[in-house]
């Protein structure tokens, strides 16, 4: 997909498949992060969720549409991942899919609205705010970076690279958060010093999209 | 001391099939009391459900807390359980399937612990049930005093105190109360119970076979969650009475039951702690409550809501009014407690 | 892997007082069901005992097997338990005191496991009871196929199969049979049941806080005793179904129940193994018995006779005739199983 | 008691007290031995039993007699030790005490009959035979050595030294036993290579008697 400026539904499925592989590869690290401040299952939940999402997508009849792919992936994900990640990624996929449901191809603008709608979905489903030390803290900076890149007329690959960098910085920043709200605050000061696992996996998702578009 | 990088050992065949095999074992062992739905293998349903006109009660959450959640399915308690993977909420599909299977026309009450995953999945399921014209209500159990200050009690985790909530609500439903009445009973029980736990040793998930935290040989963790979530204090090992006191201090400070009033107590094992130790703890708890001039209406001691093989316990105290006393005394037949 | 030289952690106050504190906890939690004798603090007596004209049943042995032994005190099972120190037989004094407290004029049956200490202490107690004109009979449970070849079945250890013997004898006594009739029932149950265990991890005594054996990270011990006595094979870890098969092969080879006959099953946890794993084992056991065309009359799964915090389980199968079926179905209220 | 040829009840109590101390000191080792082929409690059972025996003896009114001392010790022991050791040592003390009940002092002959009667008590109570890998395998050689020493007109201290040596050899010999009968046979070949804990503690008892009489 090197240099491509538009993503077809098939490209999109290919990108989701890369995410699935990347998450599976980083599964142990993600669970390790969750062990520090949660219950240690984030890696396995994500891996299971994405595998089920791809299985559901692979069972779809041709031709593929963004909304069919997103709906199937959401349903597969939510019923397999379990935990908080399930409904959050289901909401991400459903809201994102709804935002681009009439498109045949996604350009940078469409992809930005996909991730923007997804981010609003996270906030609603999770009743969470930025600074709560959640995946939002990686997601929202990435959405903002995509928006900025669009204003600057950057290429899709470059824009996604900016988004990935912003998400990684956002994830890294959760290390120092001791949010008043959200799960982290239950641990008090002890949550500080640890990256939020959901933020870390969200950053992996943006990084994988960027690499997928760049390297094809 | 357990912990570090060593692998744990489990009597399992495959981490991917533990839940389905456990459920198959449960229905094979208790075929007259529970069944699984053909079209939803993670839905455990009481043999008596649905009962026309009775409010259905659905419990659920991650597995690994057995007899937690699914074990409370049975006459006088829950009508069905939606069963998640180890320590992970079930998705909306099994919750909706369970809801439909236990709906007797009077609506369905969900009783769940306050975990983001459970709350969001049951919320999605409730939206889907609504589409099929089934009215649901959700009561979120928040008894763990260690998980947030009282000013933010709504954010507290749900732990072993849920057993009293299941019992009270199950009795109210069996007596024929309507959905809002049963939900009210569950809210009242939840508002009356406080719990705090302690871990001496960690547990490990089937998928990782690794301990989910590490305590050194002379440490314990006060305020531990039932998934091994960190507690409020990691401190030195101490005698059982001192552990019980540390927990009771916090539980009683909030609950502050007036002298002469009735309470019920649950000394709950986390899975790996022998009954001998739980009764040693119970002795001190009951002694202290009696010295405070409280009447012990009922005391449960054993593994009621576990965290796999974690070593440790939790102590729950519930303040009782006349209504709760009647409800806790009402007969119940939860499937995993039908021994003799 | 547990084991080696590390100290274990326990929720206790003092190794010297664990038993008295546990007993105090039990009577405080269940005051309407059991009491301790004032003059013999290691004698736990059912609230309903003595019952005039009923054969008294006394169980007992070392502690650390809870709910084992003392937990089976209650209507329809044992009338009293003589409680020893951890893994050590009670002495004759508490046995005699228990005997006198439950004697309703119809004699007393002792049901104990086949351990030198228990056998000799109960023998000394029987001699002393005889001096006080109380007739006793003793049935020694010998269900552990791993502990001696069939040719020397009389030397076999008594393990979890004892639960079926307590249940059958307790029902027979409650129905009003005389001493030799109750003893005969107990002998019949003992002759019909076979058990074998497996350990994944060791346990530790309160007095030593040291593991009583060591298994490496990929080992298990087949045929383990309920005090950690070495078994018949130390071998590599394997899937739950393979473990169950190794046990069932030996149990069924001896029991050889004819197709179409009735059996009951007990999948017993050793103390540290989660219920999830026990039901995974139960699934395969019941599946294999069903494929052999046996009818599962009843299946118990849980911690019934433990070895402190040992990880592992045992599988017991009992061949049932019509009489045993009635006796196993008879209601019973053992004190440590009165949850709801 | 150096060189003494007769043991008073008070001497006897002093010897039992030494045994109690010695067992307490070797408690961990004895439990270690029991861990290998039994349930790991032999040391604590013996220590508890002897402590209770001495407590019971210390509560006796003066003047002391052998039979009163033995009866009190037996009852204290059996109700505290638990396990197999309780009734076995209770039987040892009761049968031994009965054998010397009319004596005011124990010479070598009387002490030999004490231990001989005790040995017969073990066999009856335990329904065990030499070679079963039990305390008997230390006890009977010690009794035989006392008998031989008496025939040879040895001094008490020397005779007890012979007995201790015989008991130690007997205990050591249990290492190679894989008895057909008795608890050891349950383990099959795996019981070989381990000393029987009850034989080891019996040898300690004889050694303590020998040292007590020799060193005073
Ligand atoms: N209410 C919420 N809003 C947004 N994100 C959340 C919320 N709750 C949890 N998360 C995210 O989910 C991650 C945990 O996911 P996971 O471990 O899979 O679920 P669980 O916490 O149920 O075990 C957290 O690190 C956080 O980023
Ligand atoms: N039937 C018996 N006859 C003689 N000695 C026995 C008998 N059974 C056990 N013993 C002795 O008792 C010792 C074990 O004592 P202990 O560990 O205190 O009791 P338990 O075996 O009940 O745990 C054995 O090593 C053996 O020497
Ligand atoms: Mg998690
Ligand atoms: Mg989770
Ligand atoms: Mg013992
Ligand atoms: Mg022993």
Feature tags:
heterotetramer, A: 216 residues, mainly alpha, globular, B: alpha/beta, Rossmann fold, 6-stranded mixed sheet, 24% strand, binds adenosine-5'-diphosphate, binds magnesium ion
Structure description:
The complex is a heterotetramer, with two copies of chain A (216 residues) and two copies of chain B (340 residues). By secondary structure, chain A is mostly helical. Helix content of chain A is 69%, strand content 0%. Chain A has a single domain, classed as Alpha Horseshoe (Serine Threonine Protein Phosphatase 5, Tetratricopeptide repeat). Chain A is built from eight helices and no strands. In chain A, α1 (9-37) runs antiparallel to α8, α3 (66-81) packs antiparallel against α4 (85-99) and α4 (85-99) packs antiparallel against α5. The N and C termini of chain A lie close together (4 Å). The mean pLDDT of chain A is 92. By secondary structure, chain B is of the alpha/beta class. Chain B has eight helices and twelve strands. The radius of gyration of chain B is 19 Å and the shape is globular. The chains are: A mainly alpha (216), B alpha/beta (340). At the B-C interface, α1, β7, α6, α7 and β11 of B face α1, β7, α6, α7 and β11 of C.
